[in-house]
Amino acid sequence: MEELLKQIFDKLLISYGFQEWWPGEGLEIAIGAVLTQQTNWNNVEKALSKLRDADCLSITCLKKISLEKLEQLIKSSGYYKVKAQRLKNLIELLSINSNPSREDLLEVKGIGYETADSILLYLFEKLYFVIDSYTFRIIRRMGIYSGKNYLELQRVFIDNLPKDIQLYKEYHALLVKHAKGCCLKNNPKCDLCPLKDKCIYYTRKTKIFDFSKSNIKG
Ligand code: SF4
């Protein structure tokens, strides 16, 4: 497994280059991690831009601003009422705890493993491999893990990769890039895929039809 995960990383890196992701820096990373829940990054960018224009990418402003005003500023990210409350909850924590643990973050209403780990890895540079729906899709298709459990899949990466924060960041970013551009939800572009020689989905799809076992009569 160690070798396979290394090969996947190397192939993705050769194909896409370093992503140097997550976009943004500082508190913006934590805000983006909440805003990106159930939406694409373009919508998050619009919301971040509104917050920037309102000079409200700080703990001070986000604590002070009314919930209604915050809802309006982040409207483009969708589910804005829920997300505004989640942001308020997160800011409340960060205003009293500048170095939260995973447990601290998970206690915040609306923060699950993926959001917590994104904040921990990309903002606080802690060793948490981020799993998202893109990771599940690629890894399932490649035949590496077929379950649905976040912690189990995370364990596959943690147990088989060197403990390296930059590697964790880059690996996650490359998986996102691959899922968005090639391993699409519908009609993945397998013929163009750098991982196809390791992929069970591709092998099954392209398996040569055995006419001797066919029930089709001529
Ligand atoms: S071969 Fe197809 S299914 Fe497999 S990882 Fe590549 S794009 Fe996804």
**Helix content class:** 55-70%
Count of strand segments: 0
What is the annotated CATH architecture of the largest domain?
Orthogonal Bundle
**CATH superfamily heading of the largest domain:** Hypothetical protein, domain 2
How many angstroms separate the termini?
44 Å
Oligomer: single chain
Q: What fraction of residues sit in β-strands?
A: under 5%
Sheet/helix structural class:
mainly alpha
> Spans with pLDDT under 50 lasting ≥5 residues?
213-218
* CATH class term of the largest domain: Mainly Alpha
What would you call the shape?
A: elongated
- Main sheet overview: none
How do the strands and helices of this protein lay out in sequence?
Blueprint: H1 2-16, H2 27-35, H3 41-53, H4 59-64, H5 67-73, H6 80-96, H7 102-106, H8 113-123, H9 133-141, H10 150-160, H11 165-181, H12 200-206
Helix pairs in contact: 1-11, 2-3, 2-6, 2-8, 5-6, 9-11
The protein binds iron/sulfur cluster (SF4).
Defining key terms:
218 residues, single chain, binds iron/sulfur cluster, 2 domains, Endonuclease Iii, domain 2, mainly alpha, Endonuclease III, domain 1, 12 helices
Structure characterization notes:
The chain is mainly alpha-helical. The chain folds into two domains: 88 residues, Helix-hairpin-Helix base-excision DNA repair enzymes (C-terminal) (Endonuclease Iii, domain 2), CATH 1.10.1670; 97 residues, Orthogonal Bundle (Endonuclease III, domain 1). 58% of the residues lie in helices and 0% in strands. It has twelve helices and no strands. Helix 2 packs across helix 3, helix 2 packs antiparallel against helix 8 and helix 5 crosses helix 6. The C terminus is likely disordered. Bound molecules: iron/sulfur cluster. The site of iron/sulfur cluster has 14 residues, from helix 9 and helix 12.
